[in-house]
Amino acid sequence: MVMQETFETTSTMDAADRMQKVAASSMVTIVEFLTGAAFSDLASAGHALITIPTFCTNVASRATMLLDKLRRDYLSGSRGAAPAGTYLNKTKPVYEFVRVSLGIRMHGSENYSRFVNGLGAEEVTIGQNVSLIHEVGYPPCLHTWINTLALVIGHSGRKDASSCRSSVYVTLLHIKSSTHTAIYFFVAFFFSPLVQELVSPSLGK
C-alpha cells in the first residue's frame, strides 16, 4: 500500500529516480516487521536486515524496466489503439472516440526515441490534434458560422481572426455542456447563411 501511494505521488520524477523512491518507501514497513514481536528468529532477522538495500535496488531496477516497457507499448500502439479503455468509466466513450475513431495516438513517441528522425517526422503537434478534436465535434455549417463570427469580431475590434476563432470555439465548448445546447446548435445550423449575408457588407467596408 505504501509503495502504491509513493508511486502515485511521484509521477513528475524521472523513471529511475521514481522507482528508487518507491522501493525505498517499503524499508520502514520491512524493518518494523523484522523487528516486531511476530518475527522471533533473530538470526534470520539480522540477515534479512542486511539484505534490505539489495532488495530495494533489485525492486527499483525491475520496476524501472517494467515502467519503460509499459510506456513503449502505449506509445507504439502494441497494446491496441485504446489500451487504457478498460480502466475508464464515464470518460471511456470520449477516450475511445479520440483514440480509435479519430486515430489520435498517445503523444510523446518522438520524445521517447530522442527525436532520432527529427521533430515532426513521426507525429503531429498537440495543437494539431486538439484542432482535429474541435473540428469533428461540430457540424460543417457550424464551422462556417464560427469562421464568420470570428471575422466579424476581428473586424470590429481589429483583432486577428484566428485568435478570435479560438475564442469562439472555447465559448462553444462551455455552451455544449449547458442545457441550451439544442437552441444554440439550431441557430447555428439554420441562420449561418443569414449571418454571412448580414455581415458581408460590413466586412467590405
- Derived from helix and strand composition plus strand pairing, the structural class reads mainly alpha
What is the ordering of alpha helices and beta strands? HHHHHHHHHHH
What kind of assembly state do the chains in view correspond to? single chain
Average pLDDT level: 76
Please give the structural blueprint:
Layout: H1 2-8, H2 15-24, H3 27-34, H4 42-50, H5 52-76, H6 92-101, H7 109-112, H8 126-136, H9 140-157, H10 161-176, H11 181-203
Task: Describe this structure as you would to a colleague.
- The protein is built from eleven helices and no strands.
- It has 205 residues and is mainly alpha-helical.
- The protein folds into three domains: 2-76, no CATH class; 79-137, no CATH class; 138-205, no CATH class.
- Helix 1 packs antiparallel against helix 2, helix 2 packs across helix 5 (52-76) and helix 9 (140-157) packs across helix 10 (161-176).
- The longest helix has 25 residues, at 52-76.
- The protein is elongated, with a radius of gyration of 27 Å.
Provide keyphrases for this structure.
205 residues; mainly alpha; 11 helices; 69% helix; 0% strand; elongated
